[in-house]
């Protein structure tokens, strides 16, 4: 009897990681954007120009810390600064997870950060730049 309990606990524990691999989803600690904000849809179209501007911001060819440092070259959350960050940076290449994060939610977190985590406050970005970044980030889960 004891043995059976042990085995079933073992099976449950070993099932957990493979489930996480399958969905590639991760724990999110970000606060939810206010309701009126969540409803915002990206007003920009994924034109070549907008994507290029988003790319530049992501890889930070400007002065400040680039998203790439944490979210990674392929948007997979494996950037140079990622090891040791709890919670980990969002994996933008995980479609099931990304489909659940609304444009308005992303905008809010990029603008306000996620307090107590590695996710910075990018309040200095113009609204247009944030929308361009969101267009670019969404490409990672579409490939
Ligand atoms: C120093 C590391 C770091 C940098 C740089 C960084 N992020 Fe993040 N980001 C994180 C972490 C950690 C999380 C997870 C936060 C959480 O779950 O509370 C995150 C989460 C996110 C999310 C998910 C929001 C949600 O509600 O789940 C978005 C979108 C995002 N980051 C966009 C960006 C963008 C755009 C940039 C660059 C302008 C950027 N991040 C730069 C660490 C970083």
Provide the helix percentage. 40-55%
Secondary structure category = mainly alpha
So, the CATH homologous superfamily?
Cytochrome c-like domain
Distance between the termini: 49 Å
Beta-strand residue fraction: under 5%
Bound molecules: heme C
- Assign the CATH topology: Cytochrome Bc1 Complex, Chain D, domain 2
Supply the CATH class: Mainly Alpha
CATH architecture identity:
Orthogonal Bundle
Number of strands: 0
Tell me the series of helices and strands, N- to C-terminal.
HHHHHHH
**Total helix count?**
7
Mean pLDDT level: 85
Biggest beta sheet attributes: none
* Structural domain count: 1
Radius of gyration: 18 Å
Low-confidence parts, pLDDT < 50 over ≥5 residues?
5-22
Shape: globular
Written description of the protein model:
- By secondary structure, the protein is mainly α.
- The chain has a single domain, classed as Cytochrome Bc1 Complex, Chain D, domain 2, CATH 1.10.760.
- Helix content is 48%, strand content 0%.
- It contains seven helices and no strands.
- Helix 3 packs across helix 7 and helix 6 packs across helix 7.
- It starts with a helix and ends with a helix.
- The structure holds heme C (HEC).
Nutshell version of this structure?
With 143 residues, the chain is an all-alpha fold.
List the topology elements.
Elements: H1 2-23, H2 35-38, H3 48-58, H4 68-71, H5 95-98, H6 103-112, H7 127-139
The protein binds heme C.
Heme C (HEC) binds next to helix 4 and helix 6.
Name the features.
single chain; 143 residues; mainly alpha; Cytochrome Bc1 Complex, Chain D, domain 2; 7 helices; globular; binds heme C
